[in-house]
Amino acid sequence: MNKLNHYSHSGHCYPELVEKFEGKVIAQIKSNLWRDDYNNINRNFIRTLKEPLKDGIKILFLAKISFDPVYGISLQIIDIDPSFTLGDLEKEKQETIEKLNAEKIFSLNKTRKLPLLPKRIAIISVETSKGYADFLKVLEENSWNYKFFHYLFPSLLQGEKAIPGIITQLKRIEKVIHHFDVVAIIRGGGGDVGLSCYNDFELSKAIATFPIPIITGIGHATNETVSEMVSYQNAITPTKIAEFLIQKFHNFSVPVERAKDLIIDKSKRILSEEKTRVQSEAKLFRSVTETIILKNRNEVENAKKLISQHSQFMLKTNIGYVNYYNDQVFKSSIFKLKQNALILEQLKVNLQIQTTNTFKQDRLNINNLERNLLILDPINILKRGFSITLHNGKAVKDISEVSEGDLIETKVFNGKISSIVKNKNNG
């Protein structure tokens, strides 16, 4: 039954029936299921399978065929056997188990190493699922304040669409697998029909071969699915899976707490023993120290008296030497002072003579410079008959500096002459 097509306002159903071979539809027909028949069938399904009649299940049904010249052939379903559907699910389950065993991967995920503290959890569930909410509540509100990191990879969890959805999310997790310690597949309760997707071979294989442990809490108490069988750990409910993770922390923390108590107890005992030993050693040390101090005090007193006597003797013996060397130092100092006074006097005379000679020589040099400057004075040059020609206040040094008609000024010893250039001649 591909689709039930139930209309709630009338209560009637118009099931769409298909037959498939290797995944392809080879036959298809529409049928009728009237309200009263549907209600009876639905009650039987709920009683037997714990779930209502729904899409996507194999059915064994009782029907009658009628023909109408206008509407053609019609197929009216009268009854459906829920035990056949249950048996078909069990057959699919066994086939999947045989395939997994043939490929030797049935128990592969159970061999994965679960970390000592599995605190990073990738969750595959529906965000609005009650099972998901219960799982988080147990983890986050644990009374021991254990901290878990979890991230949701949302997927449908029942029906045929759940299979590709869960496999896709497993592939996504595998890409970031270094961020996680374990994967939890969490779902609320349901009957066997709703869980048939978990017997699918491809989904079971994806779980069995996953590189880190997968734990499942699909939420039912009987008839374990293949996906649950091949997972690392399965629990009846999501709450139990959360408790399983918390227990892992217990398994680590309880021995640590016991070791802590043992260390504290042993430390106190060692400290008490060492305190007693130190007190005993301190008493012995104090007694020995007092004896040594008393002995050394007497030795110090004797040594002090001996040093005093020897010091007085040495002082009397060496006082004569001190007076002798005192006289020698005094006489040597007077001789040195007289000798240095003569040297200083001679240096004074030599300095005066040298200073006088230096002044005389410098005076002669200055007089010679003065005579040379007077000789080079322009006035004296002009007195000897020379003149200076000026143009615009500047001395003319080259014939190219003036032109015909320029006003020039000639400076001689006793005055100035103004002229106008009539012509100029090179050479």
UniProtKB/TrEMBL annotation:
It is an enzyme of class 3 (hydrolase). Coiled coil: none annotated. GO terms for biological process: DNA catabolic process. Its EC number is 3.1.11.6. Its main location: cytoplasm. GO terms for cellular component: cytoplasm; exodeoxyribonuclease VII complex. It catalyses: Exonucleolytic cleavage in either 5'- to 3'- or 3'- to 5'-direction to yield nucleoside 5'-phosphates. Keywords: Cytoplasm, Exonuclease, Hydrolase, Nuclease. It holds the Pfam family Exonuc_VII_L. GO terms for molecular function: exodeoxyribonuclease VII activity; nucleic acid binding. It is found in: Cytoplasm. It comes from the Bacteria. InterPro entries: Exonuc_VII_L (IPR003753), Exonuc_VII_lsu_C (IPR020579), OB-fold_nuc-bd_dom (IPR025824). Belongs to the XseA family. This is Exodeoxyribonuclease 7 large subunit. It comes from Flavobacterium caeni.
